[in-house]
Amino acid sequence: MRQKAAERNIEVELDSCGTSSYHIGEPPDSRAIDNAHKNGLDITDLRARQFQKKDFEDFNRIYVMDQSNYNDVTYLADSAEDSDKVKLILNELEPGSNRPVPDPYFGGEDGFQEVYEMLNAACDKILDEFEA
């Protein structure tokens, strides 16, 4: 989304994080790096971090990949306003479907491309709102 926003001259602050602490400080999975590269993106400088309560203050929207992430993040919300910031990202493509982003780790190389395409389309839809 960073590259897409820059290409569209949309100024937004973006970040990515997980809900667990397993990989804090680590780079993305090598398969994700390879897939991103195949799609013209360089994600080698990214490092994992865990979602924090402070993120509710820092961001107007918080997109999650699945219901488990949604539950983990909204559990940390101190208010309905904070909870309302949290959205399932694929609902941008299929409103109300609550469809999870599949875990690419079990789908081989094709799984990473499938997830890339889903998230790529969702990012386009999100950025379209900034241009409207």
- Please report which band the strand proportion falls in: under 5%, 5-15%, 15-25%, 25-35%, 35-45% or over 45%: under 5%
The biggest sheet, with number of strands, parallel, antiparallel or mixed sense and barrel status, is: 2 strands, parallel
User: How are helices and strands ordered from N to C?
Assistant: HHHEHHEH
Low-confidence stretches: none
Q: How many strand units?
A: 2
CATH topology: Rossmann fold
What radius of gyration results from the CA coordinates?
15 Å
Spatial ordering of strands, largest sheet: 1-2
CATH architecture descriptor: 3-Layer(aba) Sandwich
Work out the helix count. Answer: 6
* Number of domain modules: 1
Shape: globular
Report how far the terminal alpha carbons are from each other.
17 Å
Question: What structural class do you assign from the helix and strand content?
Answer: mainly alpha
Percent helix: 40-55%
Subunit organisation of the chains: single chain
Any idea of the CATH class? Alpha Beta
CATH superfamily: Response regulator
